[in-house]
Amino acid sequence: RIVIGLFLVLLVGLLVPRVLTTVGQLVLSPVYAVQNWFRDSTDTLPTFLREKNDLLSEIKSLESDLAIAASTDATQQRLQEENLWLRELLGADVEGRIAAAVIARPSQLPYDFLQIDRGSEDGSVTGAPVYVGLDNVIGVVVHTTNTYSFVELFTTPGFEATAYVGGSDIIATLEGYGGGAARVRVPQDVPLTTGSVVHIPSIQPGVFGRIEYIESTPTQPEQYGYITMRKPIAHINYVAVGRLPLTPPTVEFVREEAQSILEQ
Question: What is the rounded distance in angstroms from the CA atom of residue 103 to the CA atom of residue 242?
Fold first, then answer.
């Protein structure tokens, strides 16, 4: 029985692979035949299917090339717009301007301050006006080091400057309000309208912004016109710095401003 059992096992071991191979060939032979027919036949149907697949592959390749080309065009357009913007940023001031990148802003810095990557080694001086765009002045340099400077925006709480309100044709005090906003304060009987352009007369060119909202309470002796910056602080990435200060700064002014910033 043992010998017969071993013999049967060996017989099965020899026959099963051949059986499986034969069955596999019988089952797969139609598949191979179809593949060969599709790949090599010159009949109408396989030729059409092959050409269709080739066309689909070519379409995908062209779509990929178009996507790459569109991306390249978008990059070139962005660089061109940035180039034109930088030319506009630097080209209007007869005394020249220094292009600077903003490296810190609220809430990294206290109040409405900016830190720029240009310092005294680059020509930045305390008291110099700071611009965004051709004539939009936003603040002044209040402290410089060799490699960077701090800019105090007109919207900083506690900042005050004399402003001219167009349309109303009046001189008023500009007060920093914070959060990218400032306001002018005038008596109730003085006409004040939204959309009026606010200038800083001590800076040329010195357009700061437009009055967006008026707060007027008849029982109060004064009314306020609120001005927001043309460009939100969070979106200011580059500025232009004038090469000359507005007024010669005193030693006490520089020391107080520098100490105030460094203590924050």
Answer: 18
